Amino acid sequence: MEPGKSSRDRLQFSAAAHFQKLEANVTEMINRGRHNLLGVMISAVDYEFATAQILDRAKTRRPLALSALAVHGVMTGVLDLRQRYRLNSLDLLVPDGQPVRWALNLVHRTHLPDRVYGPTLMLETCRAAEREELGIYLYGSQRSTIDRLQDRLRRLFPQLQITGSSPSRFRKLTPGEGKKVVDEVRASGAAITFIGLGCPRQETFAYELTRSLSMPALCVGAAFDFHAGTLPQAPSWMQTCGLEWAFRLAHEPRRLWRLHLLLNPVFLAMTFLQALRLLTLKPGSAERPRGHDLPG
């Protein structure tokens, strides 16, 4: 990219490259199965496969719970047995971060050529939804961010049907409030829901409500803020080198320093131990959550 390009320009350029790949070779998709990475079952797939699954479920109004997991997301399943159960109950956990993709390739020899980055997957899904005339719903973040996000998506995809949106309450929802959310999303006529609550809240939300929504629910994390322009995006070279965490840490040190400086080394160490067959965390050792726990 040329010097001086904005973060949104970089993200749009990156997404455009994937769009061109889709158009040039629509028949090739990668699906190399689900693999145990530190007790969390990550799917070794590419953008094309993930998007095809989303569209298939959206057209037939069937549920699909998907989350794009970076290191932090994987580590929530390592450290919390109930969260491990929730994660492994979702239909697709795709490698959002380069370190997660590298770990899959190291431990399971998946030879995955690229990650499935949540913000790019969101754009690809929106483009496909526009083409197929499928409505989308936006859930999470703040109202001001959602408004900017909708403006951005409408500029990128003029015919995209954004049938509704709702900001986060930033607290746990009661069972009645959870039912109301489901009713509002379904009544909107949407075929796909994007969830931007942040990890691990969004995965818990998807675990609790996706079956009731009867449509694909995609946990895309910071994609709302990136596309709305409320958070800067790392340069493409930093993303390629797996250094996006350092860029985000530099911009949000107070919020992220514990997350990256403590969890990243633990993830690396445990991954190497698993690769050497000195450590195995079993997905089946997860603990099924009890009671009502619905972040909103």
Comma- or semicolon-separated keywords:
single chain, 296 residues, alpha/beta, six-stranded parallel beta sheet, 13 helices, 8 strands
Question: What spatial form do the alpha-carbon principal axes imply?
Answer: globular
- How many helical elements? 13
Question: Which spans have pLDDT < 50 for at least 5 consecutive residues?
Answer: none
CA-to-CA gap between the ends? Answer: 37 Å
Total separate domains = 1
Residue share in helix: 40-55%
Mean pLDDT: 91
How would you write the strand order of the largest sheet? Answer: 4-3-8-7-5-6
Structural class: alpha/beta
Radius of gyration: 18 Å
Strand content: 5-15%
Order of helices and strands: HEEHEHHEHHEHEHEHEHHHH
* Largest pleated sheet: 6 strands, parallel
Give the number of DSSP strands.
8
Task: Summarize the structure in words.
The protein contains 13 helices and eight strands. It has 296 residues and is an alpha/beta fold. Helix 9 links the parallel strand 7 (192-196) and strand 8. The longest helix is centred in the last third of the chain and has 23 residues, at 253-275. It is globular and about 50 Å long.
